[in-house]
């Protein structure tokens, strides 16, 4: 039976690298994967899932209004019409979602439909919490609905497991207010253990 997986972590834990590695493993065995990433994240160019170490793969994008279940169904229908279907629906063996924290509650339910109705495994990768220490909508519902929760670990400067994401300004001071969604990387975010997040100590 297919399952819904949620790989969660703080920033810079190598989630995207894991996603690309898993997708590669499927393809290496002659299977096909379908990748999605958030339309918010255009750091590496739209429609691209890219890791910091330089590997990348083409992807579809999702916005809050995207119905991912219907989108996957459309792709399956098109591929079936073109006779590229074999054992799996539309010859799609696995769906990958990067930046899964940006999913809406509805989209998490759509992923459940892909798993339960189409019997296609869905692997999602995302941050558990934002820089304010609040849950992202996508992660909140994935923590509830996913069959499997897998933590991707990374460490704080002190050596403890980093579970929080801190945002900092040009003066290297921790930022505690602002909008939840502000795309960025190492230049404004750092993953910290809970103690150092609460203390606002970045190094
Ligand atoms: Zn620490």
Q: Can you walk me through this structure?
A:
This protein is of the alpha/beta class. The chain has one domain: 3-Layer(aba) Sandwich (Rossmann fold). It is built from five helices and eleven strands, in the order βαββββαβαβαββββα. The strands form three sheets. It has a six-stranded parallel β-sheet, sandwiched between helices. A three-stranded antiparallel β-sheet has the order 10-9-11. α2 packs parallel to α3 and α3 runs parallel beside α4. The longest helix is centred in the first third of the chain and has 14 residues. The radius of gyration is 18 Å and the shape is elongated. Zinc ion binds next to α5.
Helices and strands, with pairings:
Blueprint: E1 4-9, H1 15-28, E2 33-38, E3 48-50, E4 56-58, E5 60-62, H2 68-81, E6 94-97, H3 105-118, E7 122-127, H4 137-145, E8 148-151, E9 164-168, E10 174-175, E11 189-192, H5 194-199
Parallel strand pairs: 1-7, 1-8, 2-5, 2-6, 6-7
Antiparallel strand pairs: 3-4, 9-10, 9-11
Helix pairs in contact: 2-3, 3-4
The structure holds zinc ion.
């Amino acid at each position: 039976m297919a399952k819904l997986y949620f790989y969660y972590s703080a920033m810079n834990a190598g989630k995207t690298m894991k996603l690309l590695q898993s997708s590669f493993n499927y393809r290496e065995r002659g299977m096909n994967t379908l990748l999605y990433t958030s339309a918010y994240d255009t750091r590496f160019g739209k429609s691209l899932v890219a890791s910091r170490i330089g590997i990348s793969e083409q992807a579809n994008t999702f916005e809050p209004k995207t119905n991912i279940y219907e989108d996957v169904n459309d792709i399956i229908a098109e591929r079936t019409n073109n006779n590229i279907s074999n054992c799996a629906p539309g010859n799609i063996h696995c769906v990958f979602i990067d930046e899964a924290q940006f999913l809406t509650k509805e989209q998490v339910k759509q992923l459940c439909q892909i798993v339960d109705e189409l019997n296609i495994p869905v692997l999602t990768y995302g941050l558990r919490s934002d820089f304010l220490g609040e849950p992202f909508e996508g992660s909140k519902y994935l923590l509830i609905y996913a069959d499997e929760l897998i933590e991707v670990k990374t460490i704080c400067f002190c050596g403890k497991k980093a579970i929080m994401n801190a945002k900092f300004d040009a003066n290297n001071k921790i930022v505690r207010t602002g909008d939840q969604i502000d795309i960025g990387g190492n230049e404004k975010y750092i993953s910290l253990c809970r103690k150092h997040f609460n203390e606002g100590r970045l190094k």
